[in-house]
Amino acid sequence: MHPMLKPALRRAWRGRETVQFGVTPAHAVKVGPMDIATGCFMELLDGTRGMPLLREEAKSMDLSERHVDALVMRLMDAGLVDDVRAGGPEADALRKRTDTMERHRPDLASLSVVHPEPGAAMRRLAARRSMRVQVRGAGRVGAAVAAVLSGAGVGRVEVLDGGCAEPGDVAPGGLPASAVGERRDMAARQLVRRSAPGPVQRASGAGAGPAGREPGLSLIVVAPRDGLSGYVPEPGTAEPWISSGTPHLYAGVMEATGFVGPLVLPGGTACAGCLHLNRRDRDPQWPRMLAQWQSGRRGAVQACDLGLATAVAGLAAAHALAFLDGELPASTGSRWEAALPLLDWRSERIGAHLDCSCGAAGHTEGVRASGAGRAHDTMAG
Q1: Are 80 and 189 found together in one domain?
Q2: Quick one: 102 and 73 in the same domain?
Q3: What is the pTM of this model?
């Protein structure tokens, strides 16, 4: 093991005997009691030394091997230490891609804060390279989501959409002005390739799985240019995803209102069908109005403010990455909304409906890990 204090967490002495790692309450940890010699020794935990060398150098500071081992273990238990060589063979292969790793340094730092065990950050970053995500929609929201996921290291990001890119599709972080007039799906695929920190995996052939088969989808992000079909998703469209057990996340902008969620875990959380049935129960006129909205003018300009679209894309991509990294983000079975001009994000829990064929009703939904639960003290008794 080559222990390294996580550089993403800033350190400060709270007094003569206590060190605080981290600034924000969600990830701050206090360690104590701590003497000056031990504090100086912690500066050696930079990932360049193995435990034998650390024990040897500690002797010049009058620190025993037992003290060093106990300190490193305490810091590990508190989630403050990483191992620069851990993570498995996939992580080792990624470390050799120097240019890619330079792009990923901020991502790795963030993952090291969120996932406390040594090597966990590198293992998750490497795991993203084998994942396949499909983004349905290449407008202001969808294209930006695809670009962020590709840039964050997801190995396969596919984008589905029709027609040709229009001037209103252009957005910073999304389709460029040069894409106007091109097929949306082709322009989005080029964006994905440009955003990737390394070579983009091909859809077939090497890396496609045993016998050249397509790897299964890890996630579908539904971010249509028509905000209505994301805000009020058609249950029939999602039926194949439910039957195949494919998780899917809705996101978009509808009438100057941004939304992210729900993230649907088939058979475990409410789906598009549940959402429709719940709305029908609350408002008997809902089916009548929905039919009118869906048959309305297709050429209407979407009220999709650029700043709001960018915020929605970023939040949706962050929720997607949290899920891909093994967590259940706050959009799991819930929808987050914020409307202009106040942009006050609020969440609505969507319950599974007993009459829905998805089978989620009556099942216990996954429990999200609270970020606030990371904040703690590690003080000697």
Answers
A1: no
A2: no
A3: 0.89
* Closest C-alpha to 254, from 312, 295, 209, 175: 312
In sign, the C-alpha dihedral spanning 276, 277, 279, 283 is positive
3-state secondary structure of 142: helix
* Domain span at 50: 3-84
pLDDT score recorded for residue 269: 96
**How many angstroms separate the CA atoms of 352 and 282, rounded?**
14
Residue 377 domain flag: no
Domain boundary among 103, 125, 147: 125
The pLDDT score that the predictor gives to residue 324 is 98
Say whether both 151 and 295 belong to one domain: yes
Nearest to residue 221, comparing CAs of 116, 134, 91, 140? 134
Q: Can you tell me the distance from the alpha carbon of 53 to that of 2, in angstroms, rounded to the nearest whole number?
A: 10
Q: Max Cα separation, the chain? A: 80
User: Would you call the peptide bond into 7 cis, given omega within 30 degrees of 0 as the criterion?
Assistant: no
Question: pLDDT of 102-148, one tens digit each?
Answer: 999 999 999 999 998 999 999 999 999 999 999 999 999 999 999 99
Helix, strand, coil: what percent of the chain each, to 5?
A: 40, 15, 45
Which of 6, 221, 240 has the alpha carbon at shortest distance from 113? 6
* 354 and 246 belong to one structural domain: yes
Residue 59 forms part of a structural domain: yes
At a CB cut-off of 8 Å and minimum separation 6, what does 328 contact? 263, 322, 366, 367, 368, 369
**pLDDT per residue as tens digits for the range 190-247:** 999 999 997 765 543 334 444 556 778 999 999 999 999 999 999 999 999 999 999 9
Buried-exposed string 161-188: b where 16+ CB fall within 10 A, e elsewhere: beeebeeebbbebbbbeebeeeebbebb
